[in-house]
Amino acid sequence: MAQTLFDRVWERHVVREEPGEPALIYIDLHLLHEVTSPQAYEGLRLAGRKLRRPDRSIATMDHNVPTDGGPVTDPLAKTQLDALAANCPAFGVPLYATGSGREGIVHVIGPELGLTRPGITIVCGDSHTSTHGAFGALAFGIGTSEVEHVMATQCLQQRRPKTMRMHFEGTLPPGITAKDCILGAIGQIGVAGGVGHVIEYTGDAIEAFTMEQRMTVCNMSIEAGARAGMIAPDDTTFAYLENRPASPQGAEWEAALDEWRQLRTDDGAEFATEVVVNVDDLVPQVTWGTNPGMVAPVTANVPDPADITDDEERQSLERALEYMGLQAGMAVRDIEIDRVFIGSCTNSRIEDLRAAASVVKGHKVSDGVHAMVVPGSVPIKLQAESEGLDKLFTEAGFEWREAGCSMCLGMNPDILQPGERSASTSNRNFEGRQGRGGRTHLVSPEMAAAAAVAGHFVDVRELSYEPVG
Amino acid sequence: MEAFTRTTGRVAVIDRPDIDTDQVIPKQFLKRIERTGWGEFLFWDWRLDQDGNPRPDFELNNPAFADAKILMAGRNFGCGSSREHAPWAIQGYGFDVVIAPSFADIFRSNCMKVGLVPVELPEERVRALMDAVDTENGSEMTVDLEALTITGADGSTVEFEFDAFRRNCILNGLDDIALTLKHEAAITEYERANPSRIDTLALEH
Ligand code: SF4
Fold first, then answer.
1. What backbone phi and psi angles, to 5 degrees, belong to A59?
2. DSSP string covering B124-191, please?
3. CB distance from A58 to chain B under 8 Å?
4. Cβ atoms of A204 and A171 closer than 8 Å
5. Inter-chain residue contact A143 with B113, CB threshold 8 Å
6. How do the domains of chain B map onto residue ranges?
7. Is A126 in the pocket of ligand 1 (CB under 6 A)?
8. Which atom of ligand 1 is nearest to the CA of A343?
9. Cross-strand pairs, A456
10. What is the pTM of this model?
11. Alpha-carbon separation of residue A54 from A115, A150, A185, A217, B152 (angstroms)
12. How many CB pairs under 8 A join A and B?
């Protein structure tokens, strides 16, 4: 029978399946960080259990770490980081701690090390684990009880999710990014549009995307409510993985390639849900509300509740506009910003930094705007510095920071003050996400850079700039 | 997980769709490494103002909803972050059950693991139950996981569906890990048949 990419990966990982019970599926790679692991380690300890496969586990410090290069001053953050530093060796798990030179955002370092690869199952106590699906892996976020379950058994009890194909139809216009594609798609299907599904992204635009761009798309699958996002691996995938620190070498590499090339959706395979997103007329996207589905083209206006007939929808819109401090019907371009954050597991990779630096080059950050760049990992930071991107940013007035999650969720000191408004390349614009009372607008790295220079949103397609890096 | 069969108690209604887990338990509390004591932080930014005073307009501050055991909310409840701290906080605040037209996947799965019962009902049903709640004097309900029924104070009953496997786990307070470890032989056999090229220990670090 014709199979989808998801079917292939799922079926390879079923350890046991009984009618009426969730399947037991095997997990090839377990990623850990300081926030969602301490109670799981403690659970193992209380039950006297071992961690089954330390060789399939890897931990990093990302959510809490300060990015100003200074020590951790928040005592609670320090306790949590110390717990990870003590738990990992106690259970044999390799840890890429702050200062190790390889640390970074968990979803950035997995691919960077070559641990993320086609056809495997990956979990992490973090919803943006969907990022790794860009390589044709089945990768999804889990809660702390499940983290403990994977630690103890290397398996998960899972109901088989439904499949969705999201086909990006048409030709991507110049100046439109992967971030615009996925924001536009979420705007189309809504933040619950993907619930219960694993999405496979297809289409010419996807095939033309680099791995960094594909990761941006898959990263935000969870913002559409989906369990995971996947893209069939191809030569772009293989070229990215070749010679990564953990990638197979020599004959093993060749054998891996043979296997990975099979990971495709057959013609005629059926998906439970089909969605088509037309990208021909896509315009740079800016979120205006308090979830990623509340998004509009930069050329448009903020919606007006008076135009909405459905009561629930109208109330939700009114609440969002009030929180965001926006006038109904105002032009998106007239929204003025206080802060710019370029970073997060959505857009902190080398290409994202190059894209933002290209726009910034030769300009200055607008008066009164505080802008920062937070690379996704230490290797990315070093790479960017070797290309001189840090100089382009700092000369323009950006702060150039150490790697981490930073203002994506503000568990470290990088937060918005109440009422402050940011243009952010991250993935969530929920109330208070970047700091209590803070107002977040999600955009691409190019759009964030352009907003930093202008002090308000602008259509990046109207600027002329040369690619750097 | 503690066994749960049924609960009778007050109902609280937060009639908003897409309530995300960043609201349920804001990030500033996620640094705690304890498994308990999360209830006091539930809906912190919505419940309390900057000075720590209750916001009178937030639903959970309605005296008619005080000490509620059942939470009703709009569709796609629990979207966003995978933080299990969200069900920990809801439980810690005193709720046994959440009723909504739909739940986000990871949130639902986290609830099942900790024995917070997520009851999904068609939107009109939830709307009718919400409308029946007396927001001035409070209303009681019984949610029975064994009988799969919700009974209002007036005796009217609504049936609901629930994953049979998870229902059994919650009714009996079963330990998921122990259940899986019964299949240790199958896991070992899988590992033998599917050697992987992944070895995180082989990376120098
Ligand atoms: S960068 Fe943001 S979304 Fe990504 S793992 Fe860190 S906190 Fe989560």
1. -125, 150
2. HHHHHHHHTS-TTT--EEEEETTTTEEEETTS-EEE----HHHHHHHHHT--HHHHHHTTHHHHHHHH
3. yes
4. yes
5. yes
6. 6-173
7. yes
8. 1
9. A336
10. 0.97
11. 14, 11, 38, 30, 50
12. 205
What is the reported pLDDT for B203? 87
The DSSP result for B75-88, as a single string, is: SSBTBS---THHHH
Put simply, the answer to whether A80 touches B197 (Cβ < 8 Å) is no
Query: What is the token pair recorded at B8?
Result: 């009778």
Instruction: Determine contact, residues A202/A166, Cβ cutoff 8 Å.
Output: yes
CA dihedral B50, B55, B58, B63 (to 10 degrees): 140
Q: How far B141 CA lies from chain A's nearest CA (Å)?
A: 25
Best CA proximity match to B151, nearest among B140, B161, B162: B140
Which residue positions in chain A have pLDDT lower than 50? none
3-state secondary structure of B122: coil
CB of A347 within 6 A of ligand 1: the answer is no
Subunit contact A54:B104, Cβ cutoff 8 A: no
Q: Which pLDDT belongs to residue A162?
A: 98
Q: Least CA distance to A12: which residue of chain B? A: B194
Rounded CA separation A389/A396 (Å): 11
Q: Cα–Cα distance between A400 and A412 in angstroms, integer?
A: 16
ipTM: 0.95
pLDDT tens, A450-460? 999 999 999 99
Range B6-173 classified under CATH 3.40.50.720? no
Distance of alpha carbon A221 from alpha carbon B117, whole angstroms: 26
- State the virtual CA torsion across A22, A30, B92, B138 in degrees, nearest 10: -50
Name the minimum distance, in Å, from the CA of A67 to any CA of chain B. Answer: 17
With residues binned 3-state (H G I as helix, E B as strand, rest as coil), the percentages for chain A, rounded to 5, are 40, 20, 45
pLDDT, tens digit, 9 for 90 and up, residues A4-18: 999 999 999 999 999
Any ligand 1 atom below 6 A from CB of A424: no
Given the CA of residue A131, which atom of ligand 1 is nearest to it? 4
Confidence at residue B196, expressed as pLDDT on a 0 to 100 scale: 81
> Residue B16, Cβ neighbours under 10 Å: how many?
17
Asked if B167 has any chain A CB less than 8 Å from its own CB, the reply is no
Nearest to A409 by CA among B29, B41, B5: B29
Q: What is the per-residue pLDDT across B46-65, written as a single tens digit (0 to 9) for each?
A: 999 999 999 999 999 999 99
* Closest CA in chain B for residue A100: B205
Q: Are B33 and A79 in contact (CB under 8 A)?
A: yes
Burial status of residue B134 (CB atoms within 10 A of its CB: 0-12, 13-18, 19 or more): exposed
Question: Any CB–CB contact under 8 A between B109 and chain A?
Answer: yes
Q: Cβ–Cβ contacts within 10 Å for residue B202, how many?
A: 12
Q: Is the pLDDT of residue B171 over 50?
A: yes
Find residues 253-292 of chain A whose CB sits inside 8 Å of chain B: 256, 291
Residue B205 has pLDDT above 50, yes or no: no
Q: Is any Cβ of chain A less than 8 angstroms from the Cβ of B196? A: yes
One-letter amino acid at A101 equals G
Per-residue model confidence as pLDDT tens digits over B149-170: 999 988 899 999 999 999 999 9
Q: Report the phi/psi class of residue A311: left, alpha or beta, with left for phi > 0 and alpha for psi in -120 to 50.
A: alpha
List, in order, residues 6 or more apart from B56 with CB less than 8 Å away.
none
Nearest CA, atom 2, ligand 1: A408
Element (H, E) at A205: helix A204-208
What is the rounded end-to-end Cα distance, in angstroms, of chain B? Answer: 37
Query: Using CA of residue B55, residue B57, residue B59, residue B62, what is the dihedral sign?
Result: positive
Mutate: best of A8, A13, A16, A84, partner B, most B CBs <10 A:
A16
